[in-house]
Amino acid sequence: MPNIKSAKKRVITSRKKAVGNNVIESSRRTAIKNFEKAVKAGDKDLTSEKLNVAIQRIDKSAKSGLIHKNKAARLKSRLTKMKNNME
Asked: CATH 1.20.58.110: does it fit domain 5-86?
């Protein structure tokens, strides 16, 4: 446990940030999994809806700095390719 006052403050703020980051990260992963389930089910309408949600969550995590912008682009590309190959 830190002894310096500013270090104590940093512990508190880093915990708050970690909670927010976990929410964004888990929602991104869940959206991607839901999209993949829709692709396996073969429902085109549901797939396009889930793809939009997944892309929004990926963009949000890239904007907040949780993932690199190139990783976000790679994920979006892979998901879009999955949707296009489904048809």
From this structure: yes
CB distance 64 to 24 below 8 Å: yes
DSSP 8-state assignment for residue 87: -
Task: Give 42-83 pLDDT, tens digit per residue.
Answer: 989 999 999 999 999 999 999 999 999 999 999 999 999 999
Per domain, the residue ranges of the chain are: 5-86
User: What distance in Å separates the CA atoms of residue 37 and residue 58, rounded to the nearest whole number?
Assistant: 17
**Quick one: which of 80, 72, 75, 85 has its CA closest to 51?**
80
Query: Per-residue confidence at 1, pLDDT binned at 50, 70, 90?
Result: confident
> 13: which 2 tokens?
């703020």
* pLDDT > 70 fraction of the chain, expressed in percent and rounded: 99
CA distance 29 to 21: 12
DSSP 65: T
